[in-house]
Amino acid sequence: MGPSSRQAERHARQITIPEIGPEGQRKLARARVLVFGAGGLASAAIYYLACAGVGTIGVADDDRIELSNLNRQILHNPHRIGMLKVFSAQHTIMGFSPETHVVAYPRRVESVTEMVEVIKEFDAVIDCTDNFESRDLINESCILARKSWVYGAVSGFEGQVMTITPGRGPCYRCLYPSLPQSSDNSARAGVIGVSPGFIGVLQASEIIKHILGKGSLLVGRLLYADLLEMDFSELHVSKNPTCRYCGGHMSMEG
After folding, report:
1. Spatial CB neighbours of 228, under 8 Å, sequence gap ≥ 6
2. How far is CA 63 from the centre of its chain?
3. Is residue 123 domain-resident?
4. pLDDT value at residue 54
5. Are 34 and 58 in contact (CB under 8 A)?
6. Which of 8, 114, 138, 203 is 20 to 30 A from 147, alpha carbon to alpha carbon?
7. What domain count does the chain have?
8. Half-sphere exposure in the Cβ direction for 29 (13 Å, CA)
9. Are 139 and 173 in contact (CB under 8 A)?
10. 29 and 57 in contact (C-beta within 8 Å)?
């Protein structure tokens, strides 16, 4: 069976793309994507996953909306200040795309065991967190669960994104063999809304390509964007032989 008549009409412009078509739209409708975080990166990623017709989106976050979030977190609005972000995200996407099922996890997942159990229910993961420790936990859990995930980070006008696919390319710890001492939490580092918007859209694009099995993913390729100078560069990363997670070799080329 193809997409329903309502879905076909809504997604008509992308179904005509040769790389998608009715079969690709069916894949998107069956797909289950888990997003860690419900802030700036997640706002763009979740919106565009729903736009594409991804059938189920999980959102995990224990944070509540603050006024200072609203320069970049477009899932939320001033009337929801104090609300848990996952429920705001759920409400927004239900209004925008009623056929998208949003699963809310209003809690912080702090152990690998618990995270693996959550991740196992999904096809792929997007990291929209704002600290190295959370990303390290996501990395280990996705490797154990054999799930691909997309890393993203922003600061000021800058951002970076990379896709990690267990067994195929380097992991997050190949990129960062030792976690930096200081957090890059966006609550402390300045950020303008266009940066998480841009990087979040790239994260959604990577997941959509992963679901469709089309195009070239950013596996072993850290894409860096400087929106102030409109400059883009790529750092090539391979496996690190001493990595305790994936045990390959790392080499970097400018």
Report:
1. 156, 157, 158
2. 17
3. yes
4. 98
5. yes
6. 8
7. 1
8. 19
9. yes
10. no
Given the structure tokens 């390319």, which residue do they identify? Answer: 169
Tokens (6 digits) for 101 = 């099922």
- pLDDT per residue as tens digits for the range 122-137: 999 999 999 999 999 9
Cα dihedral value 79, 81, 86, 88, nearest 10: 0
The model carries a pTM of 0.92
The CATH number of the domain where 72 resides is what?
3.40.50.720
Contacts of residue 173, defined as CB under 8 A and 6 or more positions apart, other chains included, come to: 136, 139, 240, 243, 244, 245, 246
101-105 vs 221-226, strand pairing mode: unpaired
Residue 10 belongs to some domain of the structure = no
Provide the pLDDT for residue 252. Answer: 33
Mean pLDDT of the chain: 92
Domain span including residue 220: 31-253
Per-residue pLDDT tens for 164-194?
999 899 999 999 988 776 544 445 679 999 9
Whether 87 is covered by a domain: the verdict is yes
Tell whether 17 is covered by a domain: no
Instruction: Give how far Cα 195 sits from Cα of 33, 89, 102, 187, 191, Å.
Output: 22, 19, 25, 14, 7
The alpha carbon torsion through 125, 126, 129, 131 (nearest 10 deg) reads 80
